[in-house]
Amino acid sequence: MSTSPLAEPAAGPALPPVAGGALGWRREVWGFAVTFVAGPVLTWLLFTLSSPQSITYEVLSYQLLVVIVALIGGVRPAVTAAVLSGITLDLLFVAPAFSIAVEHPLHFIALVLYVIIAVLVGLIVAQAARRARIAQRATAEAELLASVAGHVLRGDSAVLALVSRTREAFGLSGVRLVTPAGEVLARDGEPVPDGRATAVPVGAVGGRPVAVLELHGGPLDAPSRRLLDVIVAQLAAALERTELTATAREAEALAETDQVRSALLSAVSHDLRRPLAAAVAAVGGLRSAQELSEPDRRELLVTADESLSTLTTLVTDLLDVSRVQAGVLAVSLTPVDAVGSVVSALDELSLGPADVELDLDPQLPPLSADPVLLQRVLVNVLANAHRYVTHGQKIVVSAIRRGGNLEIRVIDRGVGVPAERRDRIFQPFQRAGDTDNSAGLGLGLALSRGFTEGMRGALTAEETPGGGLTMVISLPVAADGPGS
After folding, report:
1. Residues in Cβ contact with 360 at an 8 Å cutoff, skipping those fewer than 6 apart
2. What is the H or E stretch that residue 363 is in?
3. Which residues contact 72 (CB under 8 A, 6 or more apart)?
4. What is the pTM of this model?
5. Phi-psi region of 439 (alpha: psi -120 to 50; beta: other; left: phi over 0)
């Protein structure tokens, strides 16, 4: 099992941590900073404005400071601010002044309640912060799971996308997905220098893992482990999908090969057997007959010659199809006169003005083509058009230059070909209706397209306006052609 190189998926945010302090160390530092900066400033201001009747707003001012510190930094800065505020109140604002002593027990209870309130506010802030962090983590996990599911459903690049998303989500240095044999299926990032890694099996076949997910970096906490189990399950599904897709492609290729083989056997069983049987019968008649008249002898020789010629043509077509499909077709490109090639093809087919109407400009530039292959393309296309043209109608052959190409159009007014079947007529062993065995092996258009593409051109089929089929042979104009 292997995956092909894929495009790098879009990066996603890392999952926020849940473990550790509820508010984080930065907020605690800010809480202590406010305590040790704002506390003395508040003390100086209150001491400057102090009076025997001001104890109430002095206590409330320090209480406000403690609440603000609790909101910023949580429990520990709030408790520190409360203790320091209580000591400051007792030292500077509660009689006897400038001494750590409590004249009335109620004042001591007030100070204790003051600290308890600071602790409770800090705890409430810390709990709210923890819940906010858990909610943020849950949202990030939901987004991650949605992204993971989306990659698996889309199928394309799912394995690499999951590996990359895993590294980004857990803040790892690198993540690799490898087979038990050591083949790397997908990777993102690089291993840490000290080699710290966690190996997680992915999938199982026969008691053995299909692959191993290597996580390079620090250990994962419990929530991350639970989320990793989901990602691993999705990775197993993505690997299974990749394997099934590869198997389906192989099965499709085998089915196509089997279809071609079946078509070849069907065609060969009839189209090769018929001329072969005729040739064998003619030769057998020549050998077995004691006395033959000259006309009978000549007829048998003609039959044998025609049958063997047909066999030669069929075998040559089969070999040419094999060369085209194997990509070893020999092509020699030279400047070729398009008009002359069309006329030569018509002469070979014995088609005259009663059969074909020519609309060719004698000033057309020469084509860059192989003259032998171009002749065979034109003969095949013209013969196909002549075979299916409506009785009494003429084939029209025209040519026009389009940019750097010259298009030769062979237009017939026959029954035409439905749009959904136009690509199939260029496949080997396809004939009109696939029932007329007298039409040969059905290689003509397949060879013609292969020859045209070998000459760096294209052969396409279009609907003739009003009914019929138009075959378009497009080939590049020779470099030394006029206007090129």
Report:
1. 338, 339, 342, 397, 398, 399
2. none
3. 27, 30, 31, 34
4. 0.42
5. alpha
